[in-house]
Write a structure and sequence with these properties.
By secondary structure, the chain is α+β, with helices and mostly antiparallel strands. The protein folds into three domains: 308 residues, no CATH class; 132 residues; 158 residues, no CATH class. Helix content is 51%, strand content 10%. The protein has a five-stranded mixed β-sheet, sandwiched between helices. Strands 14-15-16-18-17 form a five-stranded antiparallel β-sheet. Strands 1-6 form a two-stranded antiparallel sheet. The longest helix is centred in the first third of the chain and has 28 residues.
Length: 711
């Protein structure tokens, strides 16, 4: 443990040495949610709150935290550190400990199976500092990097099979480990259980009679351990299975699957992967970042595994190890085989989206099991090599090819918390328990971390969690918080959102590059901001927002989509009426000509258009920020909007008499990403095709209806 901890401190710890609270591990905004979790569980228990549900995020409706990676076991274990030094320090400590703990527990397993010390030391390193752990550490996913309980659970089973511990000791110890793992990561618990059961059945099928008898004896205490552990965590499971159970996958299983080329080409989490040439090679399968690109094994380790398989394939242990590596690695590649980012067809992993719990997991994370098996294989192989020079050379090659990125700055980022949230200012200027809208919002910001650093003094109307409550996502202003979106009358939309979420104050961070955009939007509230501690604090006048309590999210969405579609129809007709070429029509060009109101473009724009809620499979200038405008085939004119299909239906129906075609979703190809995933209420792109004469008639109709409404 000392060896691994010193290595972890040397590589990762020096990045935060002397800055435990001023910086934190992780790329992006994921750390915010975990730092919040470090503060939430002690706070909830101290104040007698239900820790499995919180209205301190997504206020006032709240969130079932069992569908958030809330790491309760870790938070409670680190409670003393959090109480003394704060949640950011606690989070940093567990990030440094994660690789060392994983390596140490894998070392114990490798030593048990190989019967040697220093080969087991190498085997433990290959697991604890594997591409999987490094990727999860870089992505700030402590629930996935704290996997040290998995090797310990396997170790107990191995000891029981070998007769070194009794069935009662196995049942008691395994119960404790399973409960701990469940309360760190339900995903790891579920995937290890499912894949482990599959591998155990396979091993049982070819094991000799003597080993089968031992397995039969061990199966009873293992079953008891699972029964006891599930009974202990049954309140958590009951909460998970409540009314807000998310149906289907939460994230794309295809996007977060292992690429076959990644097995030999590393990402920048490793020293070799940080080289410019290698980084370019990895770019096709690193499009979603390096956190879930965890399959890099390296040529030396693959050679060792191949050699081990060649000599030990017919032995029970060798067969189960090789089969385990193949099974977990194939499943990690997910539903489709990708080589260098190119789809080559289906894989056995296509069964994963069909399974009730495993469809919430990301396939690439199954590489954790592959690396555990590889650690054991490496330890056994090194122990069997007779020539010391070959053993030493092979060990150094294994370490060299998997060594982490040594650049300290790669692993951490500065803590960008405005002083408003860390000084006594927040408790002085915000009332205890009041609801605040913090911008930047959700995944674009660190509002949950800021709330935790303020001691949970206030609630936030928002958050960054895997599941977004429909009470937020149903409002038209919600997409505009995350990405630039054309939204008619954005001031009214914001006021309606604020009224229905009991927002009493709005805070805009001065450090956000989109702060000018937010401040322009908030000017519609008629409140002057107070500049303090690196933020602009707006107090909401209820007299300005209470009139919107009479409307619903559906009302505001239908109003926005209808107005937007009408305006696009008039814009397209106006473009042609001015004698302009249809082939050059796009939303941006219509906006520049004053045909599409520029003030409707709402949301973050300074950071580009990277965070969007569409899954359009192409880049097309006719589509921009939720609208479609431009030429179609056969001289037709295309006008479209992006939104929930049921909410768009009334607006689309008005134009059916004048349209040549209406596609909802567009494109009409049933194999497209949009149409294949369409369900009632799903957001899709709907496009109406008009002939020039039909467009003119439709625009005239829109104008007459507008005059009638005004009259």
């Amino acid at each position: 443990m000392a060896v691994y901890l010193l290595l972890s401190l040397a590589i990762f710890g020096r990045a935060i040495a002397g800055h435990l609270g001023d910086s934190h591990f992780g790329i992006g905004t994921d750390p915010s949610a975990f730092i919040w979790s470090m503060a939430w569980w002690p706070y909830a228990i101290r104040h007698g709150l239900n820790p499995l549900f919180s209205d301190y995020v997504w206020s006032p409706h709240g969130l079932n935290l069992t569908w958030m990676t809330a790491i309760p076991a870790v938070s409670l274990a680190m409670w003393p550190v959090t109480a003394v030094a704060g949640p950011v320090v606690s989070y940093n400590v567990i990030c440094v400990l994660a690789p060392a703990l994983a390596a140490w527990s894998a070392f114990l397993l490798c030593r048990q199976i190989s019967g040697t010390w220093w080969p087991a030391l190498v085997g433990g390193y290959l697991f604890g500092f594997s591409a999987y752990v490094l990727g999860q550490l870089a992505g700030s996913h402590p629930h996935m990097s704290l996997v040290f309980l998995v090797p310990l659970a396997v170790l107990l089973v191995v000891k029981a099979i070998e007769g070194q511990i009794s069935g009662g000791t196995l049942a008691a110890g395994l119960t404790a480990l399973l409960v701990g793992q469940f309360l760190i990561s339900v995903e790891v618990f579920a995937t290890v259980t499912a894949v482990g059961a599959l591998i155990a059945l396979l091993g049982y099928s070819f094991a000799p009679r003597e080993i089968r008898l031992r397995l039969n004896a061990v199966s009873i205490p293992v079953a008891l351990a699972y029964g006891f552990s599930l009974l202990i965590v049954s309140p958590y499971i009951h909460a998970m299975l409540g009314n807000d159970w998310p149906s289907g996958p939460i994230w794309s299983m295809t996007a977060y699957s292992a690429d076959l080329l990644n097995f030999i080409v590393p990402t920048p989490t490793s020293a070799i992967g940080s080289l410019a040439y290698v980084r370019a090679l990895a770019s096709p399968f690193s499009a979603y970042g390096v956190a879930e690109v965890d399959a890099y094994v390296g040529l030396p380790m693959l050679a060792v595994a191949a050699s081990y398989a060649w000599y030990h394939w017919r032995e029970p242990l060798g067969k189960i190890l090789v089969d385990s590596f193949v099974i977990s690695s194939v499943l990690a590649m997910g539903p489709r085989l990708h080589i260098d980012g190119v789809d080559w067809g289906g894989l056995p992993g296509k069964i994963l989206p069909m399974l009730p719990l495993l469809n919430k997991a990301l396939p690439a994370r199954l590489m954790m099991l592959s690396f555990l098996v590889l650690g054991v294989i490496a330890a056994n192989w090194l122990a069997s090599v007779r020539r010391p020079a070959i053993r030493a050379g092979a060990a150094w090659l294994l370490i060299l090819f998997s060594f982490p990125n040594p650049a300290a700055a790669f692993w951490t980022v500065p803590n960008n918390t405005p002083s408003f949230f860390t000084a006594p200012t927040c408790t002085h200027d915000l009332r205890a328990g009041e609801t605040v809208l913090v911008l930047p919002f959700g995944i674009r910001g660190d509002s949950m971390m800021w709330q935790a650093q303020c001691g949970m003094h206030f609630r936030i109307a928002g958050g960054y969690t895997a599941v977004v409550p429909s009470s937020f996502s149903d409002w038209p202003i919600y997409p505009a918080f995350l990405a630039a979106t054309y939204l008619p009358d954005p001031g009214a939309q914001l006021s309606a959102f604020i009224a229905h979420h009991d927002v009493e104050a709005v805070i805009v961070s001065d450090g956000d590059p989109d702060a000018p955009s937010w401040n322009r939007l908030l000017a519609s509230l008629g409140a002057e901001p107070r500049r303090i501690g690196g933020v602009a604090l707006y107090r909401v006048a209820r007299s300005a927002t209470d009139p919107y309590l009479a409307v619903t999210a559906s009302d505001m969405r239908r109003r926005a989509l209808g107005t937007l579609l009408d305006t696009l129809v008039r814009a397209a007709n106006g473009w042609l009426a001015q004698g302009r070429s249809l082939s050059s029509l796009t939303p941006l060009k219509a906006q520049r000509e004053g045909l599409l109101p520029a003030q409707w473009l709402t949301g973050p724009t300074s950071a580009g258009w990277s965070i969007v809620n569409t899954s359009l499979p192409w880049n097309d200038p006719r589509y921009f920020c939720g609208v479609w405008l431009g030429p179609m085939k056969r001289g037709l004119v295309g006008v479209g909007i992006y939104g929930p299909d049921d909410a768009m239906a009334p607006a689309l129906a008005r134009y059916r008499p004048y349209a040549a075609h209406i596609y909802s979703p567009y494109p009409p190809d049933s194999k497209s990403k949009l149409s294949s995933q369409k369900s009632s209420g799903a957001s899709v792109l709907a496009v109406i095709e008009f002939s020039p004469s039909g467009l003119k008639e439709a625009a005239t109709r829109v104008a007459s209806l507008s005059v009638s409404r005004q009259s």
